[in-house]
Design goal:
Radius of gyration: 12 Å
Strand order of the largest sheet: 2-1-3-4
Order of helices and strands: EEHEE
Structural class: mainly beta
Helix content: under 10%
Number of helices: 1
Shape: globular
Number of strands: 4
Distance between the termini: 21 Å
Length: 72
């Protein structure tokens, strides 16, 4: 069994659509407009395509304030 390497988000933590802080969930994903964006949960539900390789990643905020990849 191998240990999975933790991948941390090091970019902008604000949603590119609503400009709020992303809160507990941050998405770096392809949008329905064709471009990629950083999105909070609500904006990902409206504009995001998917969380999967080639489509986007989902990060969760940790207790120490970092965002760590959980999907994609």
């Amino acid at each position: 069994m191998t240990d999975k390497k933790e991948i941390e988000w090091l970019g902008n933590e604000g949603c590119d659509f609503c400009h709020r802080a992303c809160g507990e969930d941050l998405y770096d994903a392809k949008t329905c407009f064709g471009s990629w964006a950083v999105m909070d949960y609500e904006c990902f539900q409206k504009y995001g395509i998917a969380v999967a390789p080639g489509y986007g990643q989902h990060y969760k905020k940790t207790s120490d304030g970092r965002y760590v990849k959980v999907e994609g």
